[in-house]
Amino acid sequence: MIPRYSRPEMTAIWSPETRFRIWFEIEAHATTALAEIGIVPKEAAETIWAKGRDAVFDVARIDAIEAVTKHDVIAFLTHLAEIVGPEARFVHQGMTSSDVLDTCLNVQLVRAADILIADVDALLAALKRRAFEHKLTPTIGRSHGIHAEPVTFGLKLTQAYAEFVRVRARLVAAREEVATCAISGAVGTFANIDPRVEVYVAEAMGLTPEPVSTQVIPRDRHAMFFATLGVVASSVERLAIEVRHLQRTEVLEAEEFFSEGQKGSSAMPHKRNPVLTENLTGLARMVRSFALPAMENVALWHERDISHSSVERMIGPDATVTLDFALARLTGVVDKLLIYPEQMQRNLDKLGGLVHSQRVLLALTQAGLSREDSYRLVQRNAMPVWRGEGEFLTLLKADPEVSAALPAQEIEACFDLGYHFKHVDTIFERVFGTA
Amino acid sequence: MIPRYSRPEMTAIWSPETRFRIWFEIEAHATTALAEIGIVPKEAAETIWAKGRDAVFDVARIDAIEAVTKHDVIAFLTHLAEIVGPEARFVHQGMTSSDVLDTCLNVQLVRAADILIADVDALLAALKRRAFEHKLTPTIGRSHGIHAEPVTFGLKLTQAYAEFVRVRARLVAAREEVATCAISGAVGTFANIDPRVEVYVAEAMGLTPEPVSTQVIPRDRHAMFFATLGVVASSVERLAIEVRHLQRTEVLEAEEFFSEGQKGSSAMPHKRNPVLTENLTGLARMVRSFALPAMENVALWHERDISHSSVERMIGPDATVTLDFALARLTGVVDKLLIYPEQMQRNLDKLGGLVHSQRVLLALTQAGLSREDSYRLVQRNAMPVWRGEGEFLTLLKADPEVSAALPAQEIEACFDLGYHFKHVDTIFERVFGTA
Amino acid sequence: MIPRYSRPEMTAIWSPETRFRIWFEIEAHATTALAEIGIVPKEAAETIWAKGRDAVFDVARIDAIEAVTKHDVIAFLTHLAEIVGPEARFVHQGMTSSDVLDTCLNVQLVRAADILIADVDALLAALKRRAFEHKLTPTIGRSHGIHAEPVTFGLKLTQAYAEFVRVRARLVAAREEVATCAISGAVGTFANIDPRVEVYVAEAMGLTPEPVSTQVIPRDRHAMFFATLGVVASSVERLAIEVRHLQRTEVLEAEEFFSEGQKGSSAMPHKRNPVLTENLTGLARMVRSFALPAMENVALWHERDISHSSVERMIGPDATVTLDFALARLTGVVDKLLIYPEQMQRNLDKLGGLVHSQRVLLALTQAGLSREDSYRLVQRNAMPVWRGEGEFLTLLKADPEVSAALPAQEIEACFDLGYHFKHVDTIFERVFGTA
Amino acid sequence: MIPRYSRPEMTAIWSPETRFRIWFEIEAHATTALAEIGIVPKEAAETIWAKGRDAVFDVARIDAIEAVTKHDVIAFLTHLAEIVGPEARFVHQGMTSSDVLDTCLNVQLVRAADILIADVDALLAALKRRAFEHKLTPTIGRSHGIHAEPVTFGLKLTQAYAEFVRVRARLVAAREEVATCAISGAVGTFANIDPRVEVYVAEAMGLTPEPVSTQVIPRDRHAMFFATLGVVASSVERLAIEVRHLQRTEVLEAEEFFSEGQKGSSAMPHKRNPVLTENLTGLARMVRSFALPAMENVALWHERDISHSSVERMIGPDATVTLDFALARLTGVVDKLLIYPEQMQRNLDKLGGLVHSQRVLLALTQAGLSREDSYRLVQRNAMPVWRGEGEFLTLLKADPEVSAALPAQEIEACFDLGYHFKHVDTIFERVFGTA
């Protein structure tokens, strides 16, 4: 998490201020629950809320205490006692530090997920708008980087849209994975705390109770969360790389928006580089890399060890902040993408009609030739075109074996772009529910 | 995928025989659909089914053809034509190789997921049985590898059970991710094939149509699939490491089953090593490692490149076969685990009662002492016990400050194991729906 | 490791036959050393060599024994006793299984490294030949996928050559890392075996003695080995992706060799796809992924656990076989690469002279203009060219401010390609030692 | 990189102040070289040094300029011109941004490597001191977590020492990998800058010239650097996990130093948790994870894309700062480790003498019994001991078949600890050069 690739809303989730605020809420809700059950005085709970609700927790002070105690929750509770007074002794009754830490982490991850889901919604909106805008803009479809057959630019974006619909569903599932609360004590037995406290705090914090915890919330949940983020980042990378390819000098079918003051290069003033999407490619590598340590965090020893903690202090913020930034940047790229239909047409025409070869092949087969013969005829007319020696249509019409099988009119019909787009509506219907 | 860590049912999914059989089914169903739409003669479709349904595809022959054509689907179609005769020219009409390859891969992954889900069901059954068997077997709960407070061995297994319930749900979701079919032609536009063929084949193969494909089914689906397997493997590792810890010479609370003929060591005949769970630890590392290349596979160029193919040829079998083997092995370990309640009790007693310190702390607080004072009193009596200088209960009773706050009877009550297990039923209810 | 991506020489290293042969050699050399020290009879050692030297070890028989003993080395020794007779009791004296297993693994890795180094040598030879062949073939240099300034195709290959010189050095270092032998007994103390045996066996097997082992050879060595292979794979990927870019339809500056019988696509007969280098991209992902489990293998428990074993049974063959295949395939690609200088020139000319903009910028600065003014002048003439509205040279000469600073002749001199290649010899000297 | 896991010396390397200082030095040295060659006036170079040498670069000002230009080097040069005045136009002549950025990154990595190497030296010193201190402290060697045979605690540390000697050598090699300088212009051809400038700057900055660069220094170097750090982190993890195991309640052979004010748990005051080494386990996961994105950075497109940049902005600081912190923390742990020889002896005695079983086995074999018979005899006496039914020595002496083969005295001799330590000196000689 570095400022360059951060946005304030997501960063705020991971600030010490937010963390202490969430800790307070968990502790205070737990005290309220304890008061309702009759374990601690109701007045104590009320005092804690009254004095703590709007308190500003002094991060420097807590850090100073932790420097001595080497224990963050004790440091916080000590500071809380300074604010709340003697009633503070009713706070944290029967709880263990992890009850606070783990529930807090999950609150943070849930909030982060909410932002990420909103990010995806914005991206989906941009993709949809541009997809409809270019629903029928012809462009070459490529496999292996080689021209294949015509598609539309809208279809490309539809594909991306469908992918990010899946992304959204995965983020919702990932959010569910970590939306749990544990207030179960030192080894998860509720020996010193009534399970009703957990149920109460969970509901108050927008979580569900963890069915069985040890001292900690099991880390397979978090592994699934961060693994999902890694997959999401890979989808970001895919669309970013598509833009990078489209912006290549020789292709130039689209370009990232280029602001006026921006200089592409200190040396080559004409250059307009796809730096945003190149950046996204790198950010995707980072978010992806966090999946592994998250998975290694699962196998904690016995009821828990604390090896996961340092990992989560890093990847918690890093993964969510970076992915949030990446999604927002990608949305900007899509939203303002400069799209060049004329250049798309020029590229489509580049191969002298070869992109229609499969259609000719099919027409020959349907005219009764064997698959092998059809293939041979198409290939022998395609090869000269490939070498820049003529147009495919002309050569086909001049080939006696082809002519014998297909009248000129039928050969020409194979070169109709509309033929390729007749199911665009079907696909749009499938993906957007409307065409 | 090596035979040592493979089981035949899963391995069979990835054999060339199975692959060609699935290819045939896809091609034949597509031809039937084309016949229903009226594109190819119904008799052709019938002949293809008649001659192909029980045909044995000659793997060596197909390999030989591929050695020349360097194209696997063309090689298969050529061989199919040898079997089916002239009607073979109606096969693969308007389709592209990836229609067959990608739909086949997804059929294989779905079948693999079905086996993995069944594996988890077997594991869950074993965990549940052993959990109830040891529902109230006392054992020490440990955090940081240090004795904390009592739990029951059944609770440990309940935790594992709950984790594998999540694993199961994740596998079901992963299966859904890849249960799609694409028959959409060279760049996914259905230019040469009616979308109804895709719908037909999808249903026939137990899949759903991919809403929008390019030439290929988008690889974010597969990335999610393999990432999920990596997370699942991490849960396998967790339980395996728990067993390894329990079997340590100094702990010895449980042991892997040790068959009669088995030799633990060529040099030290007394040794009984947790080799199965050590093995599972290694296998988990492997399954986890496959998540990364699967994620890197997402960003294919434009409508597709084929870089994903070599990765999938490896991790498709490797990840599923290895995880299947690991889950089955883990089930065996759980099922036959030798559990030593007496040794658990000995370990529980090891710390001279220190495991009850939190309870004493709480009792002191509830008796009106400040948190800090209570902590100080507990710690000053705990430290000698830790050094092996006395029993905790004795020292507490002899401490005047403690006695002043708590009568001897109340101190003794803090050492009651039953206190810790009073919510075991609650947890069992939560996890198993019954206690 | 799958046959499709395997070459026999490397695969043979990992066959059971080779493994048992190496085991025999280690055991037999150790017995010889023990005989020299006087621990076992010299005749015993001689008998073992005499009967074992040309023996064929029966893999199926050893597997059958292992199925009972569940211990591979004991199974082998049992079979060896069947071959050698009563003298077999002098084999493995004071040794532990890992002495054999780990030393064998290192012999295999050293042999694998030797093949990989030879692979790199072949690749270097191909790169050098093609580099000199195209030492002065002009082509556009690109940054961010955007045309930058001219380079030569030979320079591109020189860069690759220099990278693979580093690759070679890294492989030599990786080979050194694993070229050790341990014959140190059950916990590495030499309690039951004289250290001189280790020294003897090490020398006989072409290794050096491990200074201190536990029961096993420390796995940081192997982690370094496989991490190095991952880095090497990344260099393979880089060159592969360069070829894929060059073969793009719009670029087409080079192509993988296309054999006569090869079909690019079942549907589009004109297609010539860079399938070899796409394949290399995928293989690189796999080899890279093996670095992680190798690193996780380092932290074995205490004097050893066996979690590394399953990992190494997989990645030992998989990483070396796949990388060997990839390097050989890459060498073939380079060796037979179709290179199109005319198309390179066409692409060079594509931007209407903009690739010379930096030179103009520099000339203006040297003529006394400020950096900012020079930049402004270059950019205002570059932008129309970028939009396809004119040639850069023409516009510059027509710009009064530019003309005021630079006479026409000096502007024209900025467009000389030779200017860019004046240090090609220097670079070739640096990299090849000759130009 | 988070403050909690950072040390100031390493963090300083990555501050904007340091970065701009290095940029200045590179630019100023380059100008000096240009002046020596006669391209720019000597006075200009002198002025630049005179005004820049002690200048404080205003980070906020540079950031503000970059916010407009979106180009960091141009922003810096603009600010430098504000400090230097008109002579600034001679700065950066013929250079490209990457000349500055990449050379700077390598300077930073080299400095980071120097700190890491010094860290390892400190760790080695601590390991050596403690190894000699406990050279002959008996402790049980364990394989699979099961007692095997006696070792000394010094031997354990010797193993770690030897591992970190390798770590040091790897760090030195990694430092070499990145100790290069490129001043070669926009596409690495030296078109606009004399290669002698690169040579001059390289020497001035303590680097060697990159033999051939593109626009950037090739990233296989950095991949190797970060992969090495990942392997180093795995060695850190190994030693950390050893300590964690030793500190387990049931083992308790060693403990992390426990400072007075430190509280182990908010709930269980007696707890002394190995939190430092658990933390190191997590940090190792992080450092390891950075290897993957570094490897993915290698395959930049053509002469460069900028996808590596965001990755390096993160992992450059994160990997080096985290590993520096980890090494320093590990040194502290080793230095102050509480070591309990008496508990080691207690554990050694735990198995009733079974740890000597291999020696008995060997003695029986040497007394003429077959391997199989010896094994059977040892195992039948070992099994009751394992079940806690007697002492191994007593049982062996009472076994008539054993007695028949070995006189009581010889059986007893098998239980001598000194036997196991007779080669400790040899191993110390090998590793430390002195015993």
From TrEMBL, chains A, B, C, D:
Known EC number(s)? 4.3.2.2
Q: Which InterPro entries match?
A: AdenyloSucc_lyase_C, Fumarase/histidase_N, Fumarate_lyase_CS, Fumarate_lyase_fam, Fumarate_lyase_N, L-Aspartase-like, Pur_lyase
Per its UniProt record, what SUPFAM superfamilies does this chain match?
Answer: L-aspartase-like (SSF48557)
Q: Which Gene3D superfamilies match?
A: Fumarase/aspartase (C-terminal domain), Fumarase/aspartase (Central domain), Fumarase/aspartase (N-terminal domain)
Q: Which Pfam families does the record cross-reference, listed alphabetically?
A: ADSL_C (PF10397), Lyase_1 (PF00206)
Q: Recall the GO molecular function terms of this protein's record.
A: lyase activity
Q: Which CDD domains match?
A: Adenylsuccinate_lyase_1 (cd01360)
Q: Catalyses which reaction?
A: N(6)-(1,2-dicarboxyethyl)-AMP = fumarate + AMP; (2S)-2-[5-amino-1-(5-phospho-beta-D-ribosyl)imidazole-4-carboxamido]succinate = 5-amino-1-(5-phospho-beta-D-ribosyl)imidazole-4-carboxamide + fumarate
Query: Pathway listed for it?
Result: Purine metabolism; AMP biosynthesis via de novo pathway; AMP from IMP: step 2/2; Purine metabolism; IMP biosynthesis via de novo pathway; 5-amino-1-(5-phospho-D-ribosyl)imidazole-4-carboxamide from 5-amino-1-(5-phospho-D-ribosyl)imidazole-4-carboxylate: step 2/2
Q: Which keywords does the record carry?
A: Lyase, Purine biosynthesis
- Please state every residue range assigned to the domain named Adenylosuccinate lyase C-terminal: 352-432
Q: Does the keyword Lyase apply?
A: yes
What protein family is recorded?
Answer: Belongs to the lyase 1 family. Adenylosuccinate lyase subfamily.
| Listed name of the protein | Adenylosuccinate lyase
What organism is this sequence from?
A: Methylobacterium iners
Ranked from the top, the taxonomy reads: Bacteria, Pseudomonadati, Pseudomonadota, Alphaproteobacteria, Hyphomicrobiales
Q: Write the gene name.
A: purB
